[in-house]
Amino acid sequence: MASLTIQASDGSGSFGGYLALPGKTPAAAVLVIQEIFGINKVMRDLCDGFAAQGYLAFSPDLFWRIKPGIDITDQTEAEWQQAFELFQKFDVDKGIEDLKASLTTLRGHEACNGRVGSVGYCLGGKLAFLMATRSDADCNVSYYGVGLLDHIAEVKNIAKPLLMHVAREDGFVPKDQQDEVAAAVAANAHVTLHSYEGQDHAFAREGGAHYDAAAASTANQRTREFFARNLRD
């Protein structure tokens, strides 16, 4: 693993994360946006996977303003409680600013060719959606984003490709809210939404309670093809 330090745009400090380098550079980059468990093995493995596909992959520590270095799992009740406490304390707007700072730093990295996309899961799925509405990332992928209805007025700002993976049986996002979001993004030609029938939240998290290998394989293949279309030369 290489190291990367990001300076916060508001001057409040700096933060790091997990950086995985591809075998050949310069290459396009992918911002891998964390769930509520910090930069844990799941996020590191995702970065390594994107690096194996030929991308510079970086997962920034977005909880650094609360407590740096959070690395927990979804395997115990105590860790879930800690994760939800972090989620409640997390400032979404500052998180987006930290992601935009990460985007700028990645674009200028010697191993990057200047093209950068994002992909996020759970909390990160919400943030990837907001990167599509608030940043100039070349493309973005949202896996089962939460709380998107609160930001539906921003759909009109999406000007770059956005791919959305929605768990139809998501325990954190009622179906009526899913339907409202789907109707809103349908009006924007830059957005492609796939709904996965019978799937619950985090169906693509290996080792998770709701992991479904078939649905995860389908979603991840769609993501692979999406990045190939929008980040490759």
From TrEMBL:
It comes from Tistlia consotensis USBA 355. Transmembrane segments: none annotated. GO terms for molecular function: hydrolase activity. Signal peptide: none annotated. Pfam families: DLH. Residues 15-229 form the Dienelactone hydrolase domain. SUPFAM superfamilies: alpha/beta-Hydrolases. The lineage of its organism: Bacteria, Pseudomonadati, Pseudomonadota, Alphaproteobacteria, Rhodospirillales. InterPro entries: AB_hydrolase_fold, Dienelactn_hydro, Dienelactone_hydrolase-like. This is Carboxymethylenebutenolidase. Coiled coil: none annotated. It comes from the Bacteria.
